[in-house]
Amino acid sequence: MSVPQNPGRDCPLCPRLVAFRQKHRALSPGWHNAPVPSFGADDARLLIVGLAPGLQGANKTGRPFTGDWAGDLLYETLIAYGFAKGTYDERPDDGLELIGTRITNAVRCVPPENKPTTEEIHTCRPFLSATIAAMPRLSAIVTLGKIGHDSAVRALGEKPARLPFRHGGVAMSGSITVFSSYHCSRYNTNTGVLTPEMFRAVFAAVRDHLDRG
Ligand code: URA
Question: What is the DSSP string of 44-107?
């Protein structure tokens, strides 16, 4: 049977993540508390691959990066480079629309401490592979952070040793160009590992790439 693009609400595959989900369903019944599906249409030319939903962000709202610290810089940058339009207001019903862009996560369930295990990343990868396979016009992938990068590279059937993670890195996998960036996490932006200018430069390069063809 083929793997769907998004795990079901009660996906049983990762016991640790299931237990964490059950705990938060009991604590906060109004939250999404389930695997977070990709945001954006299948016919997008750009796919952005993050790490995993944040507990009080995407896990609460049900939309990738929505309500997460990292979403502020990501959505602001996407709007600035024409990959999104409208207003990002940290809510899935804020009316924000992606333009030719889709956002997903390497791991679809919120992990404790924001840290999925190697096994969880591996177990969730078929959903990422199915997401990529369902995008007939895909031309570029932006990977956010090394975990998202390595998982996307493996989902493309490549070895991370051939396409290693490097901030500002650009590499080809068949017809797809992979752009890598440090993750726009609170830690990386607060410590200056990633500045808004560095992040914008990645999306400026993606814009150039897509506008050229
Ligand atoms: N929120 C997400 O959905 N993904 C990330 O990688 C970080 C925050």
Answer: -SEEEEES---TTTHHHHSSTTTTSHHHHHHHHHHHHTTSEES---SSTTS--EESSEEEEESS
> What type of residue sits at position 24?
H
Are 171 and 207 spatial neighbours (Cβ–Cβ below 8 Å)? no
- 156 vs 193: CA distance, rounded Å: 27
Which H or E run contains 179?
Answer: strand 176-181
Taking CB atoms and a 6 Å cutoff, what residues make up the pocket around ligand 1?
Answer: 50-54, 57-58, 64-65, 68, 70, 105, 144
Tell how far the Cα of 107 is from the centroid of ligand 1, in angstroms: 9
Contact 45, 82 (CB under 8 A): no
Q: Which domains can be identified in the chain, with CATH numbers?
A: 15-212 (3.40.470.10)
First to last CA, the chain: 35
Output the six-digit token pair for 48: 């952005």
Residue among 159, 173, 167 nearest 197 (CA): 167
Amino acid at 210: L
The predicted-structure confidence for 39-89, as pLDDT tens digits, reads as follows: 999 999 999 999 999 999 999 999 999 999 999 999 999 999 999 999 999
* Total-model pTM: 0.98
